[in-house]
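Listing S7. Sequence submitted for prediction.
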Amino acid sequence: MKRRDFFKKAGVMSAGAAAATTGLAAPAIAQGNITWRMVTTWPKNFPGLGVGAQRLADRITAASGGRLSVQVFAAGELVPALQSIDAVIDGSAEMSHGAAYYWQNKSQGLSFFTGVPYGMTSRELAAWVRYLGGQEIWDEIYDQFGLQGFLSGDTGTQAGGWFRNELTGLSDIQGLRFRTPGLGGQVWEKMGASVTNLAGGEIFQALQSGTLDAAEFVGPYNDLALGFYQICKNYYFPSFNEPGLATELVVDKAKYQELPEDLQAIVRDCSQAEYDQVASDFYANDPRALATLVNDHGVTVRQFPEEILEAGAQAATELLTEIRENGDALTKKTVESYISALNLVRTRSEGTDMGFMRAREQYFSLS
């Protein structure tokens, strides 16, 4: 799908239409039913992520029998993409769908609930959040802002990014203008890149204008829709800074706690179901999108040079050590919990899953 076709189909609202939505000053309540507004960081109908946000809203509405209806606003329809969480804090929306590392300026600890360079895969992250104390720490962080967070989507290990020129080593990174957010962005800065963060819908224009030399967003499924291949032909794998990215549903905690217990459970459990549903969506569609990028659009798939991988690991070690030593008490607590959980769950991933994957790659194939 060409980028212009995707955005045409997305039907992004005009400024006048967006302004009209601000008339929704409070959740609608009729005959005991409630309507909540979900603002997202994704373009409308965006594959995987935007579709996942809409599907989550539809799940909640259906499971509640319409007692809690969720109305979705894509990026820019009610508020700009990277202001969605502020809309929940200031009460102009009840829900935000995005990625926790977009809000690391509020608390650096939030980045650990999205993706950590050389950190947990998505399955490992879910184990930490659900069973090893991660959710409780996440709750502590968001309590400061009157919010409640839930895992809501899983992209798996992401692509490393799109680059105008081939990377031969660290020297090619120096001064590189690169869109990449979160802790991963800080790692690339340590390696010499000039890093910025932009919402997904803004990246293509920045590449096209020459403001950016490179960008990473998610992976083939999303990147094909965004049209990055029209400018950059070097596509690097895998992402060492986003090994298992999670999206989040954030809700106004006071309003959430005012809901009956069954509606609270519906919001929580539908989010968990959607976390797994989005993972299946990406696993099914990333390979097909990548084949289209290579076969139809002349994209070259590359692996990062070992020099860059090693430097990234060293920079990640330095960054996490700095955060653990210099962060505030709650951030330190987050880092300690994350590292403890990582050291536990990786024994299973590396001792069991990795061995099987190696064996399958080497010895088994069917056509």
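Caption to Listing S7: primary sequence and predicted structure tokens for the chain studied. Residues 13-154+245-284 form a domain with the D-Maltodextrin-Binding Protein; domain 2 fold (CATH 3.40.190.170). The chain is about 50% helix and 15% strand.
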